[in-house]
Design a protein that fits this description.
Rossmann fold; seven-stranded antiparallel sheet; 16 strands; binds FE2/S2 (inorganic) cluster; 252 residues; Elongation Factor Tu (Ef-tu), domain 3; seven-stranded mixed sheet; alpha/beta; binds flavin-adenine dinucleotide; 2 domains
């Protein structure tokens, strides 16, 4: 993990409120793994004080990509950056997905901006059968950029299956050989909890990319606790022990 001043190459609008930022960062590109994140300083002054964490969405040669929506001041500042500007990035941070195990098919389950880490993962596992269950509240939240074999769902039914992404996946439980599959999931915590419950019930291998409020991003502030499911009254840190955890490891 190191700090780099990197150059913004392009900001691409994927939807009204969703952007893909392309940054020239050869060092991070070389060492990044899918599921890892970077802590980005979104302004040159002291406001906002804290860096903002973003999943590494993709890597292409010497370039890295982040997918983000405008949620508050930090992401608003990020979206207003210009091509050629320098941006300060700390990373890559955390543990990514473990995709080097034996499995035949990958089941991606992503809610909203939870799709962010999956273009990079998809690239790394393109020799496997991939089912990508992508859900959002409405069509405006559906991003399939960099993904394969997408099965779409929306809460309001504006596109794809009408219902949440976990209900969408449940319709396929009997159709996929889940004995040889791994679920990779990222999204809001209630969605991750439903995926976790399902994976434990059906004994499907499952890795969850969790989110929480973060400050330092590298284990110093102790501000990103998540309760261990394996040891009573023990906690893990999302930034260094995660953000990706085995579904059996943590309580959501
Ligand atoms: C490991 C990790 C990876 C992430 N990857 C991405 C990504 O790839 N793309 C992306 O758009 N966002 C991602 N996030 C969330 C992102 O960091 C926040 O959206 C961002 O910090 C918001 O900053 P802001 O200043 O714009 O909003 P703020 O003003 O700080 O907050 C605006 C709103 O967003 C909520 N919020 C802030 N941080 C989080 C969070 N971590 N989880 C849930 N809600 C939050 C706040 O409660 C508030 O309601 C990630 C977070 C973590 C911890
Ligand atoms: S964000 Fe500081 S310890 Fe995790």
């Amino acid at each position: 993990m190191k700090i780099f001043n990197s150059t913004i190459s392009e900001i691409i609008k994927l939807h009204d409120n969703i952007n893909l930022i392309k940054i020239h960062s050869p060092e991070i590109a070389k060492s990044a793994k899918p599921g890892q994140f970077c802590n980005i300083k979104v302004s040159d002054c002291n406001f906002p004080l804290l860096r903002r964490p973003f999943s590494i969405s993709d890597v292409d040669g010497e370039y890295i990509y982040f997918m983000f929506n405008v949620a508050g001041e930090g992401t608003k500042l990020l979206s207003s950056k210009q091509n050629g500007e320098t941006i300060n990035i700390l990373g890559p941070l955390g543990n990514g997905f473990n995709f080097e195990t034996e499995f035949k098919s990958a089941v991606i389950i992503a809610g909203g901006l939870g799709v962010a880490p999956f273009p990079f993962l998809t690239k790394k596992i393109n020799n496997k059968k991939i089912y990508a269950f992508i859900g959002g509240r409405s069509e405006n939240e559906i991003i399939t950029h960099g993904l394969e074999n997408c099965i779409i769902s929306t809460d309001n039914g504006s596109v794809g299956f009408k219902g949440n992404v976990v209900e969408s996946f449940k319709r396929y439980i009997d159709k996929i050989d889940l004995g040889n599959a791994v679920i990779f999931s990222c999204g809001p915590t209630p969605m991750l909890k439903a995926v976790q419950d399902l994976s434990l019930q059906y004994k499907i291998k499952c890795q969850l990319s969790t989110e929480c409020a973060m400050a330092c991003g590298f284990g110093i502030c102790q501000g990103c606790n998540i309760e261990s499911a394996e040891e009573e009254d023990k906690y893990k840190l999302v930034c260094i022990d995660g953000p990706v955890f085995d579904a059996k490891e943590v309580k959501l």
